[in-house]
Amino acid sequence: MEIGIRPIVEGKVTGSVLLSPSPISFLGDIDSKTGKIIDSESPIYGKNLKDTIFVFPRGRGSTVGSYIIYGLKVNDVSPLALVAEEAETIVIAGAILADIPLVDLPDKDLFSILETGDIVTIDTSEKILKIQKRKE
Amino acid sequence: MTMFLTKDQEEMLSGVKGEAVAKSMELIVKIGEVYKADRLIPITNAQVAGVSYLTVGDSIFSFFELLSKDAVTVKVPTWLNPAGMDMEKWREMEISEDFAEKQFRIIKFYEGLGINPTLTCAPYLIGHTPTHGDHLAWSESSAVSMANSFYGARTNREGAPSSLASAITGLTANYGLHITENRYPRILVDVRTKLESFSDYSALGYWFGKKFHSLIPYFVNIQSLNINEAKMLAAALAASGSVALFHVKDLTPESKSIDIENVEEKIEFTESNKKEVYNHFNQITEGADLVAIGCPHASYEDIKLISNTLQSRQMKKDIEFWIFTSSKTKAVIDADSLLTNLESRGIKVYADTCMVVSPSVSGNFRNVITNSTKAAHYLSKAKTTLVNLLPIDSIMKEVTE
Asked: Per the CB < 8 Å rule, is A71 touching B57?
């Protein structure tokens, strides 16, 4: 299945989905040293962002969150790509600084289609997100 | 959509002027494209957040390394948000050596970029007053709201990196509150109860922001809006919601010229709405251990009011009283003996920081009284702290003898 997306930061990557159904505050919810989700109220508490295709509705909270995204990259625990329902300045700035592919405005409801563990490819030159393999 | 860039701007983006300038341009252009800006516009000045080591953590140092690749400096006058400690009295605040060392490094880096280390959330109180119609790139949410609403300048609610990128390039993307049509109010608020203290203004802002998130309000029946009242309203609107602009009939600069035709909804702010806010922040069950004033940073008049209310009274035992302000205002109150008077009664005045961005408040105190809903909001989010919201005169009665 192919889903249309809007590219913001370019790239082509394939990886395993980590899906957060709730908005993410990069400052406070994530440990930039390890890539772990440390917000105990998060449905994906304890999961790690490293090398995932991180799918979430939107960023929230402090704009310092952009520096946390950059920190993930420097500490080599960053996601392969960020997929938001709607990107806002915190996530855009973070993705640009860290040079992590970022897309948003999917033309289908990602949260009813995707599951954590699905293998997907994002290709910003084609403006698509393609599901390669379902979670086993 | 691609936005229009001048030849000079294209060059900055392409890396001709170094990597730091190119990254800054990329950031501004990409954000502009997402928000459908047609072009970039010059800014008059910038106000940069991302200063307190408590909030930025070690990630900031990697980012500084990236910027250090070129000898880059800011193109417009730029001011800094508060740090995580008083830069002189940090030991008295029980800040660790390690924290202090990192905080000094952060500020030194910003200074190296040519940024003025004002370390305040309220630059407009110390002479950096925005001019009507100026385009700015400010990031402290309460200051953004003051610049737009009280001064009629134009700034979006910038992030820490985007305000810095604008400072480095002298540019921002033309979208959002830079455009006249986006500054019209969407909802009329009839204020049916008297606003008698700074905390009443703060309660109004908190109530509206919580209910209507980012809508631009047009307040009617507010009788007075001096700078100290306005900053409490502005900060609260931006803390419980993300309101970056408000209008008050006859009292804010754009209120006379704006179009209120598009107002879709009319609501009332009543005495019981106001009480709801005070009740929400009435959490302390045992004795309070700290009074924290200065969110946003206290002005000269704010501090004078506290001093006047004190008269010949002293602070009670077992409770601390901290006022947060800028170093510049602190120097003024020091010069006219206000500071000595307060200190002799047991009241401490800390500069450069505040109860929200310093670890010394949430780390050392469990029960905090304040007159600011913004401070109350953030302090009670850290679940170890309970807060009471009270007007200054009630606070002074409660904690002095």
From this structure: yes
